[in-house]
Amino acid sequence: MPAPQCASCHKARAALRRPRSGLALCGACFCAAFEAEVLHTVVAGRLLPPGAVVAVGASGGKDSTVLAHVLRELAPRLGISLQLVAVDEGIGGYRDAALAAVRRQAARWELPLTVHGRLGRSRSCCTFCGVLRRRALEEGARLVGATHVVTGHNADDMAETVLMNFLRGDAGRLARGGGLGSPGEGGALPRCRPLQLASQKEVVLYAHFRRLDYFSEECVYAPEAFRGHARDLLKLLEAARPSAVLDLVHSAERLALAPAARPPPAGACSRCGALASRALCQACALLDGLDRGRPRLAIGKGRRGRDEVGPRGLRRSGSGSNPQPGKPFLLFPPSRDPSSPLGRL
Ligand SMILES: Nc1ncnc2c1ncn2[C@@H]1O[C@H](COP(=O)(O)OP(=O)(O)OP(=O)(O)O)[C@@H](O)[C@H]1O
What we know:
InterPro entries: CTU1-like_ATP-bd, CTU1_C, Rossmann-like_a/b/a_fold, TilS/TtcA_N, tRNA_thiolation_TtcA_Ctu1. The protein is built from eleven helices and ten strands. It has helices spanning 27-44, 62-78, 95-109, 126-143, 155-168, 171-177, 200-209, 227-240, 244-254, 282-291, 295-298; strands spanning 16-17, 24-25, 53-57, 81-88, 113-117, 148-150, 181-182, 191-192, 267-268, 275-276. The two termini are 22 Å apart.
């Protein structure tokens, strides 16, 4: 059966069905709609004011690649300028190749790139890596004179985080997790996630139709992370209820915590001055724990922290471009190659 006409331009043949709406679109109309939706997220949420110098957290992965590309397209309309900031966590066999992709992107798009790091010590646990990378990204952004930081988290990432926080009973993080970003409390730069309402499938499709060059390998430590369980659960939920991802993202915005469950008001870290709900912020507590050889206790995990890391070798589906249950949405998959991210969708 021939593909239907594009429901937007009514000229070209449709190349895909949008996963949420089911609308059949050609590649050009899909990309235009995707960019318009990101523009709407930024403008309606007042995320990036005109004149902002925006540091894009560039990991080389599909999300930050798509984010940088879309913001570069929108920059003249938004009146913002962009800087790519990549953190080198020193993850052997992974980050070097990812950084090579970021360097190619910076050269192709003629965007300034700063590589900040190496974190070196944070190699064996995603919690360490995430917390210290967040700090390094803030430092890198300040170095280049940025006024705002953006990251490529998409709707699936956010829904996974909400699920993880529920599963851990982490009321503090649930309370902080809603919204499209943070306004820059405690002297930190304002941070936002312009792709937070975009589904992972559409991010991959956008990268495909715009022919973006990105690094699609999973971090070597990803199979150990608790996030993989949340991801698997989310896929099951999404197969039964396609709106589950966005419903979870929005639920985090609407949650109201009982007064007794609310985290204490944040103060300043006694060591670095960053926002902290205890004497030390999470990054300083982690470094302190590492120095004392007691990393888990330093972040208040102790026994509970064992949940953080799954048994080695436990196979879970990977990140980003994984097979998703549900209806096929690409009418003419250009690739059946299982090593291609699109082929695996
Ligand atoms: N090493 C890094 N340097 C700079 N920013 C990073 C780095 N790692 C992650 N980020 C930012 O945090 C976001 C979410 O991190 P995550 O771990 O999901 O990234 P990823 O899976 O490596 O790549 P991506 O999310 O870009 O596909 C990224 O989209 C990016 O904006």
